[in-house]
Amino acid sequence: PAQRIIGHEKNLWVEYSALAIRHQAVNLGQGFPDFPPPQFLKDAWSEAVDIPSAHWYTRGQGYPRLVTALSDLYSPEFGRTINPMSEIMTSVGAYESLYAALTAFTDPGDEVILIEPHFDSYSVVVEVCGGKPVYVPLKPEGDPRNANNWVLDKAEFEGAFNSKTKLLMVNTPHNPIGKLFSAEEMEFIARTCEKHNVLIISDEVYERCVFPGHVHHRIATVPGAWDRTITVGSAGKSFSMTGYKLGWAIGPQELISKLQTVHQTAVYSAPTILQEVIARCVEREIQMKGHGDAYHTQLPQIMKDGCSQIMAACQDAGLDVVEPFGGYFILVDTSPLGLEFDTSQVEYDIQCVHWLTEHKKLAGIPLSLFFGKNKHISEKYIRLCFAKSEGTLKTGGDIIRDIT
Ligand code: PMP
Ligand code: GLN
Q1: SS3 string of 271-317?
Q2: Phi-psi region of 93 (alpha: psi -120 to 50; beta: other; left: phi over 0)
Q3: Mean predicted confidence (pLDDT) in 231-252
Q4: Ligand 1 centroid to 337 CA: how many Å?
Q5: How many CB atoms lie under 10 A from the CB of residue 189?
Q6: What pLDDT, on the 0 to 100 scale, is given for residue 226?
Q7: Mean of the per-residue pLDDT values for the chain?
Q8: DSSP-derived 3-state class of residue 231
Q9: What secondary structure letter does DSSP report for 357?
Q10: pLDDT tens for residues 356-373?
């Protein structure tokens, strides 16, 4: 194999999904809703299947009906007119947009700032490009049981920038903490990037999973930040069907055109029929905006309810959690379980997840796997996914209550 992929053979999702299956555990590990598609989605598929051109190749940078719908959806949210043909690219999942953005701008020797814990693919792609991930942690300031108390140390963050810094990755709502970056935090991050002339990739795949009463702040809307920012979204996350693997990148033509160079060579286009289906769903959201039947009106409450059930189970079991305000995940402090492991070789949380999966039939994800440098912060936390069906939440909750 080429040198660039050596050392990256292992994949967290492959490993932990196999572990859950092997032990027939209730899977609160990998982040995927396990409920059936809502009726409007099934209707969109039935209608799309009768459109002959939906079965053909389409425009590589994005199916016209979908990019138009995305422009209509996002323009008011970004407070600017987003050009559907030049400022949006659709991709195979948000993964591909992230991959295209990181590879389009990372040269060997470039430094990329990753706020950790971070979604695992970021650091791998940076390293495959020959870049250097530079890790800056979110640390609890005050009560760690509130996700929004996990913050950057401003001086430490600024200190991570130098003349080699090319890019910064930001993720809000945050996987795995469930933090929503505030307007003030976004402003600070954007200003720092401006000062050092650094590009920003903002992974906002959980943008529609912000709990009721909370606000999603987009870094691209900080005055002056649009020109240096690529915002990434996901149909899988926006419509709770992660198997769809359709994503998009939004930003100035100057930046999106560079992602397109990667995309047109790697996959050329995302599947046409899927883009037709999602275009219909996005159009429906625009028409029903603010209405109780709009999916994006319902989703925040669905996520919050799932979260509340897992939180209640943890509370009953005497386990502290980091209360999230959006996304699919909750961090649980497993210290009260009183488990003893030899941690000279393998982190506590990794052994704890293996133990829980094998002995309690409950699968989660160790927090330390989201860290490149500051693993000590992860301590005894594991990540559980609450974006699950009633049945899964009930069985998972019962196991948690019974755990100690
Ligand atoms: N970013 C984050 C933070 C994620 O959790 C995920 C997980 N799916 C992705 C990107 C990838 O999204 P997609 O499934 O649309 O490729
Ligand atoms: N985004 C999902 C998570 O964080 C999983 C991604 C994957 O399975 N590759 O759990």
Answers
A1: CHHHHHHHHHHHHHHHHCCCCCCCHHHHHHHHHHHHHHHHHHHHHHC
A2: left
A3: 98
A4: 31
A5: 24
A6: 98
A7: 97
A8: strand
A9: I
A10: 999 999 999 999 999 999
**Peptide bond before 324: cis, by omega within 30 degrees of 0?**
no
Helix axes 253-266, 93-105, angle to 10 degrees: 110
How sure is the predictor about 404, in pLDDT bands with cuts at 50, 70 and 90?
confident
- Provide mean pLDDT across the span 15-31: 97
Task: Please tell me the distance from the alpha carbon of residue 311 to that of residue 308, in angstroms, as a whole number.
Answer: 5
Two tokens, residue 316? 């009953």
Residue 95: CB within 6 Å of ligand 1? Answer: yes
83: pLDDT strictly greater than 90: yes
171 lines ligand 1 (CB under 6 A): yes
User: What backbone torsions phi and psi does residue 135 show, to the nearest 5 degrees?
Assistant: -95, 130
* Residue 43 φ/ψ region, left for φ over 0, alpha for ψ in the -120 to 50 degree band, beta for the rest: alpha
Asked whether 357 lines ligand 2 (CB < 6 A), one says no
Q: Is 172 in the pocket of ligand 1 (CB under 6 A)?
A: no
Mean pLDDT along residues 146-165: 98
Beta carbons of 262 and 99 less than 8 angstroms apart: yes
DSSP 73-132: HHHHHHTSPPPTTTSEEEESHHHHHHHHHHHHH--TT-EEEEEES--THHHHHHHHTT-E
Task: Assess whether the C-beta atom of 121 lies below 6 angstroms from ligand 2.
Answer: no
Confidence (pLDDT) at 379 = 84
CA-based nearest residue to 311, from 95, 131, 146, 173 = 146
Point out the ligand 2 atom lying closest to the alpha carbon of residue 385. 10
For Cα atoms 59, 62, 63, give the angle at the middle one, nearest 5 degrees.
Answer: 70
Helix (H) or strand (E) holding 170, with range, is: strand 165-171
β-partners of residue 288 are none
Position 378 scores a pLDDT of 87
ipTM of the complex, rounded to two decimals = 0.98
**Domain positions in the chain:** 3-37+294-401, 39-287
CATH number assigned to the domain with residue range 39-287, chosen from the 4 options 1.20.120.550, 1.10.150.170, 3.40.640.10, 3.40.50.2000? 3.40.640.10
**Superfamily of domain 3-37+294-401, CATH level 4:** Aspartate Aminotransferase, domain 1 (3.90.1150.10)
Radius of gyration over every alpha carbon of the chain, rounded to an integer in angstroms: 21
Give, using CA atoms, the residue closest to atom 12 of ligand 1.
94
- The dihedral through the CA atoms of 174, 254, 167, 60 has a sign that is positive
